[in-house]
Every structure is written in C-alpha cells, then in structure tokens.
Design goal:
Number of helices: 10
Distance between the termini: 28 Å
Length: about 325
C-alpha cells in the first residue's frame, strides 16, 4: 500500500509503501514521475484519489511541498517507463471528475539510488530515551540514551517518520507502566521498533513482515545493534503462520502499517493479544483515527492515548 511521503527537504523520490521503501528488482526506484501542481489541501485530495485507484498496486505515490510561503505542492505517482502509457490513461481518468483543471506534468528521473540519497545525512531522531541514528552519527549518542542504529536501506523505518517516532514514544510509556513478558512487532520493516522493544525491556520479541526482504533487513539490523538472542524473525503474510501461536499470545503488539489493513486485521490481532495486553497502532492518518478506533473498540479494547505527529497518529489501546 502506497502512502504519503514524509517531507525530507525536497526529496520527492523517496516512496514509502507501508513500512518499506519500494524499489523494483529490475531497476531504480522509478524512471518516470507524473504529477500535478496545486495547493496543499488539494494535493491531499488528489493523493486520496490516487490511493483509491492505485493503492493496491506497486506504484509509489506521494505529496511534496515545493514552496511553503506560496502554498505550492505536488502530488505524484512514480513508475517504470514501460508502465507510463497505461498509468497516464488511468491517472487522467482518475482526475477527470474533480481535478480536470490540473495539468498532468511529466519528469524523467535520473538513475540514482534515491533510497540512500534521500536518507543519507539525516540527523539523529530522539523520541523519549531512544535515539535512532545512522552509522555516521554514532558519536552523537548521549549518555543514558538507548541508541538504535539504522542506515538507509530497502526497509522503511529510520525513525524520521512521525509514525515511527510516535510508536517509540508510546513504547517507552508502556514499558514504564505495564508488565510486558513478550512483544510482537507486526510489519517490522527495518526492525527499528522490534529492536527498540528488546533494548528497552529485554524480553522475547517476534518481528514479522509480509516481505522477505524486510525480514532479512530487520534481522541484519538487529545484529548491527548487538541483538543476537531474544528476537525471532518470520516472513508471515497474515496470522496463519505458526510463528504467532508458537510465540504468543503477546503482552504487547506493535503494528505500524496502514489504516486499512489495521482495520481488516483487528479481530485476528486482538485474538493474539494476552489478557491485559497493550496495542500500539500507527501508520494512520489523522482523519482515519476514528475509523480505526471503532474497529478496535468493537474488539473490546480500551483507548488509552493518541499521539499526533505531522498529520499522522499513533494509538495506544489496552485489552
């Protein structure tokens, strides 16, 4: 599922798909960008429309701020050149009803590793006691901080996105106020949240993802961070994997994914939660908050707290 881009100092070529930065196996992130230029509010509306049309496919979509003072934004979709004709036709149709006045522009992108380009040099991110940093910033970790080293790579989750930072903040709160014996990080991406949970609580952690690349990257990141025991990694496209029954039920489940799959999986997620357990949900746009809460309230979870960051929310619930 493609979703909004975080604003990374005008780096429009970073595409966040769920919790993974998507890059086709046969080439760079994308060779063609089709986009419209408009206001922030209308760019958000265009993005919602693109999500409806392309949200279940592998085309990355996003919004980018061009000029803050003049309120100029772009809403874009990225693709390989071979897909341009069909995507252009569908994009034109998608915009024809409400956004026909916005001309569709085209940009040919250079063959650059935008994954590394967009994330290199980002400053460390601090959320509570956690500091998430690249290998080039090891010397910036302060005494008493829980350091998590995540370099630019194929799996999403460097801590710079508001959803990841929000999860880290709630994670610290849960660790202070609840007894946690085991943790599930559902949709682990880079593994940043799973690693954070282990470093903070030193309890067994199961980290799963539907993408084998993400699972492999998360396991490697755990080794980089000195975690050699206590974490289990599994590629699991749903709750059918035996990894859940073997390692659960869980006192804490973290799921930083997207609103739609979070709502769909609510019954199964709660079924894997131990009595009295906590849930941390994110990857949720502010306007989607009530829909997500309704699904989990329907599973008899109690809302504890919501954190708001840059248009995204992180929700803490208890069983």
């Amino acid at each position: 599922h493609s979703t909004r881009l975080p604003t990374l100092e005008r780096t429009p070529f970073t595409a966040w798909c769920g919790r993974r930065i998507c890059q086709p196996k046969d080439g760079p992130l994308s060779e063609i960008r089709l986009f419209v230029t408009t206001t922030e509010k209308q760019a958000e509306a265009v993005l919602d429309r693109l999500s409806e049309v392309f949200g279940e496919e592998d085309f990355a979509i996003g919004t980018t701020e061009v000029d803050e003072k003049r309120d100029i934004w772009e809403a874009s979709i990225y693709m390989m050149m071979v897909d341009e004709e069909s995507v252009n036709e569908r994009l034109t149709e998608a915009l024809s009803e409400d956004f026909a006045h916005l001309p569709i522009e085209r940009e040919v992108l250079p063959d650059i590793d935008w994954i590394a380009k967009s994330l290199e040099g980002l400053a460390p991110v601090r959320a509570g006691r956690f500091v998430v940093h690249g290998s080039h910033d090891r010397d910036k970790v302060k005494t008493g901080e829980i350091a998590i080293e995540i370099d630019a790579g194929q799996a999403f989750g460097t801590g710079h996105h508001g959803t990841t930072a929000g999860c880290l903040e709630v994670l610290a709160t849960v660790a202070r106020t609840r007894t946690v014996r085991n943790v599930l990080d559902l949709g682990t991406g880079s593994g940043v949240l799973a690693i954070a949970a282990w470093k903070l609580m030193h309890v067994p952690v199961l980290a799963t993802d539907i993408d084998p690349i993400a699972t492999r990257v998360a396991e490697e990141n755990a080794r980089v961070n000195g975690v050699v025991t206590g974490m289990t990694f599994a590629t699991a496209p749903g709750f059918h994997s035996t990894a859940f029954s073997t390692n659960g039920p869980f006192d804490l489940i973290i799921a930083n994914i997207l609103a739609r799959p979070l709502m769909k999986m609510a019954p199964q997620l709660v079924a894997n939660l131990a009595p009295g357990g906590s849930v941390i949900l994110s990857g949720i746009l502010a306007e989607q908050r009530w829909k997500v809460l309704a699904h989990y309230n329907g599973q008899h979870l109690r809302h504890v707290r919501t954190i708001w960051r840059n248009g995204w929310v992180t929700i803490h619930l208890e069983k």
